[in-house]
Amino acid sequence: MPTTIGKFPIVTNNMAKVTSSKINLRPAAGYILIEPVSAQTQTVSGIYLPDSASEKPQKGTVIAIGDVEVTEKGTKASPVKPADVVIYKKWGGNEVKMNGKDYLFVKFEDILATEIQL
Question: How does pLDDT run across 62-75, given as a tens digit for each residue?
């Protein structure tokens, strides 16, 4: 039985298998596939926000990683691994909607931080 993060199995060959829709995705070299967290719909004080007022999330879970990126200066490996929770650039990445779910493809250099579990 493969190890899973929520409903996503951790796959060793960098393929993401979205079990609910049976889509296999493999990011291109130098890219990471992220499932963004849902935007906050309620403030700390309990006020509900309309969709137009909510900010674009900058945090998500890594689903799959593309191959090592080859550049003129050498190779660049991924700074994260599947199942990591990451913070990425606010305007970085390309949004993709597949089977009603939002995903984001970001470049390796668009990852700002990895959340550390204490």
Answer: 999 999 988 888 88
Sequence-ordered list of residues with C-beta below 8 angstroms from that of 12, at least 6 positions apart, any chain = none
DSSP notation for 15-80: -EEETTTTEEE-PPTTEEEEEEPPPP-B-TTSPBPPGGGSPPP-EEEEEEEPPPEEETTEEE--S-
| Sequence ranges of the domains in the chain | 4-39+46-114
CB atoms within 10 A of CB 112: 13
Q: Which residue has the tokens 């700002």?
A: 112
Round to whole Å and give the CA distance between 109 and 73.
Answer: 14
Are 110 and 92 a contacting pair, CB within 8 Å? yes
Q: What's the CA gap between 85 and 90, in Å, rounded?
A: 15
Looking at domain 4-39+46-114, its CATH architecture is Roll (2.30)
Query: Between 53 and 98, whose confidence is greater?
Result: 98
Q: Model-level pTM?
A: 0.69
